[in-house]
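Notes, p. 3: input format for complexes.
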Amino acid sequence: MQFGRFDDEIREYVITTPRTPYPWINYLGTKEFFSLISHTGGGYCFYRDARFRRLLRYRYNNVPTDVGARALYIRDGDDVWTPAWKPMKSALDRFECRHGLGMTTIVGERNGVRAATTFLVPLGETAEIWRLTLSNNSDTAKKLTVFSFVEFCLWNAWDDQNNFQRNFSTGEVEVDGSAIYHVTEYRERRNHYAVFGVNAPLTGFDTDRETFLGPDNGLHEPAVVLDGAPRNSIASGWAPIASHCVEVELAPGQQRDLVFTLGYVENPANAKWEQPGVVNKSPARALLSRFSDPRQVEAAVDALRDYWSSLLETYALDSPDERLDRMVNVWNPYQCMVTFNMSRSASYFESGIGRGMGFRDSNQDLLGFVHLVPERARQRILDIAATQFPDGSAYHQYQPLTKQGNHDIGAGFNDDPLWLIIGTAAYIKETGDFGILSEEVPFDNDNSNTASLFEHLRRSFHFTLDNLGPHGLPLIGRADWNDCLNLNCFSEDPDEPYQTTANREGRTAESVFIAGQLVYAAPDYADLAQHMGFDDEATAAREHGAGMEAAILEHAWDGEWFLRAYDFFGEKVGSHENEEGQIFIEPQGFCVMAGVGLEDGKAIRALDSVAEHLATPYGIVLNQPPYSRYHLELGEISSYPPGYKENAGIFCHNNPWVMIAETRIGRGDRAFDYYRRIAPAYLEEISEIHRTEPYVYSQMVAGRDAVREGEAKNSWLTGTAAWNYVAIAHHMLGVRPELGGLRVSPCIGTEIPSFTVTRRCRGGTYRIRVANSLKHGEPKLTVDGIAVEGTLVPYAPAGATVEVECET
Ligand code: BGC
Ligand code: NOJ
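Output follows (808 residues plus beta-D-glucopyranose):
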């Protein structure tokens, strides 16, 4: 069942009923100010950090799921309704929500009145704009009263839901003309405030929640709106809100716009006050004047559209499969940009007060957005590297506002260091900017202890080599990529988190995943070392890569597939000898992707085992059989009921590793088949089962052992976005930057007989026409009409256009 459709022409997903299976959301904002907005207007916004600078209060796990923190109410005579359907769940003659790139428009119609609101965060602004267009499509004159509503978060979202003994007394507002100011804590240590203004004179306003709603009413029955009479309440403590009341008269056929601006404003410390006790509002007034006219909003909309068009032109596909085109050209890179901005901090499944930026997460996200915003990727790499410790290990997470490593979780996830090599190599392949390797970067953000970025990479590589276990495989530490494989944890206390509890000391538990990761990273690391003139280091790195490959083949081959790990006691994990959890996806994907077992048939065997034991119609599950009981020696993985999350769920992040691995052994058909099983655009028709947005990936789809097989959770913020992009764009369509040129080596099977990719890279444009005839072992290329050896297209000078013909 579908709940909407793709509008490819203008790159929007059009939701045609408010009753989607779950809130289907979008993100607004490109750089500093971000909003989450659901198809019925729910969500919140924040400046840079969803924990420390949250403007709107949003209640997670609410009943019903998605109410607050924004609303618009319309009074039409005695009839009161909400055009976004919620919060009143008004019966609408028509509903439509268009989620586009950084922009959402929600349309509701009732009794001849059409209310269309476009929400956006204009480029360069720290504000959310709502442009409400009211049209009278009836044949009688309409006298409408519009009430806006937002509820403020008292800035620190964590404290906001904990510290009520203080917070119920701190709330403060000011009202000035049509602008309402949220100034809680401004009198003391804050030099920022929020403003919510509208470009029209007010009939009245409200800023106190209880007055606006009435003591016993929810957002679906605000007393002020039902009475049609604003009270001009001034919040003092309790819960500050902002509600404007504006009268709009419309003759038949007439239309009128209201522009609401919800902004974040910072003042310099020495210019906080206009007069003693009066907040300096001049930057807010300037902001409001930039959006006092709907034409200014139109210009901002156009600028935003141009921004996205030019970003997305970097990689443009034209294929016979419209679902593939919309994933590759629009929705997958769009999601990659959102993961770039959010990491795992704020979604409808991540509360914005938890995890901040992940070391491994952000490095992997980078693989999906580096071609879109290379200069921002550069800064991201330097920020991440600055949270590394001198021994090469790394903070697992850091806070976006402060960029400081998060002490609560600390270090000890032994896959983290190698991701920095993988991320940095991707950046240099894209840009050719080897200069980044010479940038001085602190360890642990301590400016008195710095080293070149290359030295950071060297320490990453050697951290892994310095921490090997009895079989010469890397020690797993707290966990590797799979956060839930906690082999040193032995937690029996339900009140301690798996992620932070004290681990047993031991140097036995080894990860085959990290082993594969080292083999994967070694050639890139060696190339970078060589470029820096460290030839001995380069040679040694290649040898270490080969040595690790040998260790995997010798100690981590189970007969039909690669083992997953050795546990604390040196017992096998992910072996046919185990009673449960006999085979895992991660080592099959990562080891083959790294090239392990290509020569002796093990790679093919391992991938056949994946097909046989792990592949399901909804995607490839993480392990089989699932753990049916808690295994103390394995940790969180066995805490999930069978089929969910890391215990035999379809953990979509690792599926593309298998797709890429399949392309390494030339099985494009199978790779593309796996791709379609989880790519959201292909799941649109089963939205009633899948339930999350059909335009973005979710972290997890319940596996075949789950009660709710096929149901997705945790949409938007997942490494799935970046890796699926890499799998399809780089490996199946086969166009990827390497240090020496643009590789053109498609492997996508028979479904896509021909396609064109236009790729911008390092200032040049490459027009690549592929005839996917599958006649040759190795694709045949002509570059500007001349047949070339191999599949590498040398980089052209900036400004050049290169025509590439490719026959597979
Ligand atoms: C989840 C993981 C997540 C981890 C860290 C676990 O409960 O299953 O997917 O990475 O928590 O927050
Ligand atoms: C989600 C986390 O963000 C990611 O870092 C981890 O690799 C996966 N869960 C798998 O556990």
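The chain is about 25% helix and 25% strand.
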